[in-house]
Amino acid sequence: MLTSLRLKNFVIVDELELEFAPNLTVLTGETGAGKSIVLDALGLLLGDRADTGMLRHGADKADLAAGFDLAGTPQAAAWLQENDMAGDDADSLLLRRTLDSAGKSKAYINGIAATLAQLKTLGEMLVDIHGQHAHQLLLRAEMQRDILDGYAGAVDTARALSGAWRDWQSQLAQLDDARRNAAAFDAERERLQWQIDEVAALGLGSAEWDELQAEHKRLHHAASLIDGVQAAIAVLADGDENCQGWLGQANHRLAELSGYDAQLEGPLALLNEIDVQLIEAVNALRHYADGLELDPARLADVEARMDAVWRLARKYRVEPEQLTGLLQDWQSRLAALGGSEGLSSLEKAVAKAEASYQQLGKKLSGLRSAAAPKLAAAVTKEMKPLALADSRLEIALEAGAPSAHGLETIDFRVAHGDAPARALGKIVSGGELSRISLALQVIVSARSGVATLVFDEVDVGIGGRVAEIVGRLLAQLGASRQVLCITHLPQVAAQGHQHLQVSKAKTGTGIISAVRGLNRDERIDEIARMLGGVDITETTRKHAAELLGHA
């Protein structure tokens, strides 16, 4: 649930702090007062893109923040834990967004820098915003499809189907390309196979070239290594005059003298350590010398192996150590061309991709078929009190050519009386479309897991008794979750549990927008203004009080 909103230097807001209550909150105000600013700010905090036009004139930086109570949104709390963004209080969330005059924007989740994608992902779990043009979007096929899939719990399946469709089409395009260029593809496969066989026959290991170079250097200089190591051992230990003997003499003499002066004990200890290290060095050299030998035959083998590697590397114009990577590239390309099986392999891949798509398509069709009549019935029930008692919604699913969106087309239709159902755009007026859209939004929102629903003037084209029913509908929805509604209808405003008024005033620094909560008397005045316009009479105020009383 949205608990607070703080804005600074945003559009025409100088500084604003709001606290939100549960249930239904209505926002009202004269046209142009800036009612949409609150929703624009909320949209930015939920991942919408920003631009410098959102910065208040003359300001260097805009700062927005929103607080949320996550007690009713466990999926959001779990997401924060998984992404290491949870705060000290697991049920609290603070979103923040800044925007400077250079157009740079920064986002934070509980004080941790975040991306817009992270904001948007989290925002979809927190708030569901229904814009004022939702009824116009309802005429679009993609919107109708999204509504049904959302109601059916089929969003993940639809997304998987879209991926399967792309994979199928990619495999199909590759097969078509191979068929059109069969001769060239066959030639390329043969060439690749021949090259692969030639390099693979060499059996070059990934680190073998470095090992060959090291071994060749050792074998080539074996005589020098043997002579040098033996000479070092003689100097250190085996010669008539050697380091070990000299060091032993020094140690013995100093040991005697240390009895006369304790200051010699330090140097003596160091010499003892040197003696130990010298013994270890000599032992290591003896072990190394035991393994050294002149091996012309092995040297010849290594040189022959290196020559074979060099020949292939020069042939394919790469360094010797790059041959194994080149082999892998050829193998990948051959696999993409269908391997040694050619077209038959590509045909099998296409068939497999199509089968995967068809399986997901049938699953999605089943979910849609089961949900369509339930959604239509639920919306039809909500339409009846909205002056559409003689109308009903039908959702037609018609088999079509496979596409990224499934195996069928989805068409929302409306029937009046006994007349056959027809497409929305052909049969309903603007006001009727608005009411049907509102009924749909209420039904779909009731199934969503978000705790906060926002309606931006979705009551356009509605008035009179229907407007009062719409207000009650929103209030009922607010009984189970938080609802924010921007409205121009007094009948809807009267149903609010919290009433915020948006106004603007001219100051020395320009036009400033403000939002404040209204008490009961102030609500009567505001609803009277909405009822009567400029001239508010006592009769209008009584009517406003009566609306509040009924609510």
What does this 3D model show about the protein?
The protein has 551 residues and is an alpha/beta fold. Helix content is 56%, strand content 19%. It is built from 20 helices and 15 strands. The protein has helices spanning 35-45, 74-82, 116-126, 134-137, 141-152, 155-180, 182-202, 208-220, 222-238, 243-257, 265-290, 296-315, 323-336, 343-383, 424-427, 430-447, 464-478, 490-493, 520-532, 538-550; strands spanning 2-10, 13-19, 24-28, 61-69, 92-100, 105-109, 112-114, 127-130, 391-403, 406-416, 422-423, 452-456, 482-486, 498-507, 510-517. It has a 6-stranded antiparallel beta sheet, with helices on one face. It has a 6-stranded mixed beta sheet with strand order 8-12-13-3-14-15. A 3-stranded antiparallel beta sheet has the order 9-10-11. Helix 8 (208-220) packs across helix 12, helix 14 (343-383) crosses helix 16 and helix 19 crosses helix 20 (538-550). The mean pLDDT is 86.
Condensed summary:
By secondary structure, this protein is of the alpha/beta class.
Secondary structure layout plus pairing:
Blueprint: E1 2-10, E2 13-19, E3 24-28, H1 35-45, E4 61-69, H2 74-82, E5 92-100, E6 105-109, E7 112-114, H3 116-126, E8 127-130, H4 134-137, H5 141-152, H6 155-180, H7 182-202, H8 208-220, H9 222-238, H10 243-257, H11 265-290, H12 296-315, H13 323-336, H14 343-383, E9 391-403, E10 406-416, E11 422-423, H15 424-427, H16 430-447, E12 452-456, H17 464-478, E13 482-486, H18 490-493, E14 498-507, E15 510-517, H19 520-532, H20 538-550
Parallel strand pairs: 3-13, 3-14, 8-12, 12-13
Antiparallel strand pairs: 1-2, 1-4, 4-5, 5-6, 6-7, 9-10, 10-11, 14-15
